[in-house]
Design goal:
The chain has a six-stranded mixed beta sheet, with helices on one face. A five-stranded mixed beta sheet has the order 8-9-10-12-11, with helices on one face. Strands 1-2-3 form a three-stranded antiparallel beta sheet. Helix content is 42%, strand content 16%. The chain is elongated and about 85 Å long. It has three domains: 1-60; 65-220, no CATH class; 231-489, 4-Layer Sandwich (Purple Acid Phosphatase, chain A, domain 2). By secondary structure, it is of the alpha/beta class. It has helices at 3-17, 25-36, 43-59, 70-75, 105-115, 124-130, 135-145, 156-161, 165-178, 182-188, 190-223, 268-285, 320-340, 370-382, 415-422, 461-465; strands at residues 86-88, 91-95, 100-104, 243-248, 289-295, 345-351, 386-389, 392-396, 400-405, 428-433, 440-445, 448-452, 473-479, 483-489.
Length: 490
């Protein structure tokens, strides 16, 4: 890195870290690299600088303990960088990119007391709910005051103006300790404390990620370009009475694959070409109505780190909120293109895949991921009935049931359990999934079929190295004197 880049990295570390020693160093290093448009080869260097900075901060602040004294607490002050606030008429004034925010000094004092682990130790979610804040307001307050778990229980201006700040803190702590009640039993009993810290760490990590996604999406939506809708296609056939199910799985939006021996090249342009081919096929069939099924792995990676070498097979900038916005734009464009060509879409179905998680490791993630956000925004854009479930989506028709999942979880591999939980044993049941990037029938009987469907994405270095390659494609089904299934290669 150049000297100028190193200085900018330092500024961003101070801005985002404050004195929060629990911050996720990997996520922060990726955020800084993206913000400064640095190469990912600098990730370890940035992470090292974050660690070095936090170690330095930790030497200058008192550690939290059950027997903290007033002296200890007084020394636990916010990181003393350049002030990002001013006070006018008993109100804090902070300037954001979009607006000027005013908060009473007394209110900010309460926030410090509620959020600090020396005070009530509220989580971020509890803070937002208790003080009725917007996510952007809460992020602005944290950033401008360097508010973190090791912060004081009073805001900086109150401490500056107090003639005897130690006495001020002592009085507050006396009041705090006399009213802990159940909080003491919950947070300070030795056995529960360990579990409490584990739970808080997971909740804070997830909430920080969600807040970041929402904030970045709000910023990006302002700059969003109009949707690109495919041109109209003239159908050569009359409208049929078919209800068509279009099954699309493993779009891996944001992936960039090029130059492999047995795997086709892949990027956003190629995906849009595939979707235009699918559009032409559907318009040529000219069905009475269509249900669209999106069975997970809609994006390649939110973090860029699903595998150790994932990051270098991702299109430039297609991570984080940007890849979510890209995904919802591509899907919405495809849907509007169908509608503009006279295709009636009745319902949309979405489920999560293993690539759609918002954390680098699947062990750290709940199943609810990026598809939750994508499906919600697509529903708002298209105004179509939309069904989302992180595990399984299903629909019962007159003669049959369709049960869809991504296919990576154990439940989805048990045909009979899927039918008993989500289908109807008195009807024909089609259990569909993706994940394997290939077409495979796992079960076939009089009560139904279990199959992995072709995916639009065929693989990358990771899958080719494991020996898995296939042809891109999709699946169409309809009922006409029995379930008809058409597998189409692209």
């Amino acid at each position: 890195m150049t000297k100028e880049e190193r200085n900018k990295v330092k500024e961003l570390i101070i801005k985002y870290c404050g004195c929060d020693s629990n911050i996720n160093k990997n996520q922060l290093s990726i955020k800084i690299i993206r913000e400064l448009n640095l190469s990912f080869e600098h990730k370890e260097a940035v992470r090292h600088r974050i660690t070095k900075y936090l170690n330095k901060v930790n030497k200058n602040i008192s550690t939290s303990s059950n027997n903290s004294t007033t002296e200890d607490l007084y020394e636990t002050v916010n990181h003393t960088e350049k002030k990002l606030w001013k006070v006018e008429k008993s109100n804090y004034v902070i300037n954001t990119k979009k607006d000027e925010l005013l908060f009473p000094v007394e209110l900010i004092d309460q926030m410090f007391y509620y959020y600090s682990e020396h005070g009530l130790n509220y989580s971020q979610t509890e803070m937002i709910n208790h003080f009725n804040l917007e996510v952007t307001e809460w992020n602005s307050i944290k950033n401008h005051f360097n508010l973190c778990k090791l912060s004081n229980i009073f805001s900086p201006y109150t401490l500056e103006q107090s003639e005897n700040p130690k006495e001020l803190i002592k009085d507050k702590m006396t009041q705090h300790l006399s009213n802990l009640g159940k909080v003491v039993q919950k947070e300070y009993s030795e056995g529960l404390q360990r579990e409490y810290k584990k739970t808080i760490k997971k909740n804070i990590t997830k909430q920080i990620m969600t807040n970041t996604i929402i904030t970045e999406l709000n910023d990006l939506i302002v700059e969003r370009k109009p949707l690109v809708v495919f041109k109209n296609i003239n159908s050569n056939t009359e409208k049929t009475d078919l209800h068509l199910n279009v099954i699309l799985t493993d779009l891996h939006i944001g992936a960039s694959v090029e130059g492999l021996v047995n795997t086709r090249d892949y990027n956003t342009e190629i995906l849009n070409n595939y979707l235009e081919s699918i559009l032409r096929e559907i318009v040529d069939i000219n069905p009475k109505s269509v249900d669209l099924w999106f069975l997970g792995d809609l994006i390649e990676s939110f973090t860029g780190l699903n595998h150790s070498n994932s990051w270098y097979q991702i299109e430039q900038g297609k991570v984080g909120a940007k890849v979510i916005l890209e995904a919802q734009n591509i899907i919405s464009s495809f849907i509007f293109s169908l509608m503009n060509n006279g295709i009636t879409i009745t319902e949309l179905f979405f489920t999560e895949g293993n690539h759609d998680r918002i954390t680098a490791s699947k062990e750290d993630s709940s199943r609810v991921g990026c598809v939750n956000i994508i499906s919600h925004n697509v529903a708002n854009t298209t105004k179509l009935p939309t069904h989302y479930d992180p595990y399984v989506v299903s629909k019962e028709y007159n003669d049959y049931c369709i049960i869809g999942s991504h296919g990576d979880l154990r439940l989805s591999k048990d045909f009979h359990k899927m039918v008993s939980l989500y289908g109807n044993s008195s009807k024909y049941n089609l259990v569909i999934k993706g994940h394997l990037h290939t077409c495979k029938v796992n079960h076939d009987s009089s009560i139904g079929r279990d199959m992995n469907c072709l995916s639009l994405f065929t693989g990358n270095n990771y899958s080719e190295g494991e020996g898995y390659t296939s042809t891109p494609g999709y699946t169409l089904t309809h009922w006409k004197k029995g379930l008809k299934t058409k597998i189409i290669n692209l």
